[in-house]
Amino acid sequence: MKKFVFYSLLFIIVSILHSQKPLASEIAKSKAADSFDLSQYEGKVIYLDFWASWCVPCRKSFPWMNQLQQKHEDKDLVIVAINLDKKKSLADAFLLENPANFNIVYDPKGQLAKKFGIKGMPSSVIFDRNGKAVKAHTGFFVKKIDQYEQEIQNTLNIAKK
After folding, report:
1. Are 148 and 126 in contact (CB under 8 A)?
2. Alpha helices, DSSP H only, in the chain?
3. Domain that residue 39 falls in
4. Quick check: 47 and 61 in contact, CB under 8 A?
5. Exposed site from 7, 41, 66, 90, fewest CB < 10 Å?
6. How many domains are there within the chain?
7. Residue 148 within a domain
8. What percent of the chain lies above the pLDDT cut of 90?
9. Distance CA 161, CA 34 (A)
10. In-domain check, residue 15
11. Per residue in 112-149, pLDDT tens?
12. Which of helix, strand or coil describes residue 48?
């Protein structure tokens, strides 16, 4: 009887975990690369991040970007993370382990990465309120978080021309 109960509970748990789907909020925030346009964020500071599921530093950057979005969303900061995996399922699995409270764009063909001259993972570009790229970084280093945040804060403090 104990084995039956154990296996029944195990089956239920596995069934629940297997049937989980992305949250509606995640789907609503996901876009395809061909529909992405920076001008939709006119007047806002944009932190544009390029990432992939296999990228170890990306796993460290996501919690920080979540905190950053929460801290500065009322100050017109928008974070957009562009995924470069060839298979969307890899990105979806990554996002189940590393949830994002910011916009995700899928770019399996690397169109946006080419457009912005991305050389490594992760890479980020900060755009001012006028849509001008003001800072760029390749890699994500925990010891540089203060520097990244200062660059974003400085950009947020500059008024739109």
Report:
1. no
2. 2-19, 24-28, 56-72, 88-97, 111-115, 145-157
3. 24-157
4. no
5. 7
6. 1
7. yes
8. 65
9. 28
10. no
11. 999 889 989 999 999 999 999 999 999 999 999 999 99
12. strand
Q: Which amino acid is at 26?
A: E
Distance CA 129, CA 158 (A): 8
Radius of gyration of the chain (CA): 18
Starting from the edge strand earliest in sequence, which strands make up the sheet with 30-32, in order?
30-32, 103-106, 77-83, 45-51, 123-127, 133-138
Is the whole model's pTM more than 0.85, yes or no? Answer: no
Question: What residues contact residue 126 under an 8 Å CB cut-off, 6+ apart?
Answer: 45, 46, 47, 48, 133, 134, 135, 136, 151, 152, 155
Q: How far apart are CA 135 and CA 120, in angstroms?
A: 15
The CATH number of the domain holding residue 145 is 3.40.30.10
Residue 99: both structure tokens together: 């949830």
Write out the H or E segment, with its range, that includes residue 137.
strand 133-138
**Residue 116 in domain:** yes
Integer Cα distance of 161 and 143 in angstroms: 33
The residue type of 64 is: W
Residue 26 pLDDT > 50: no
Structure tokens that stand for 124 in this block? 């980020």
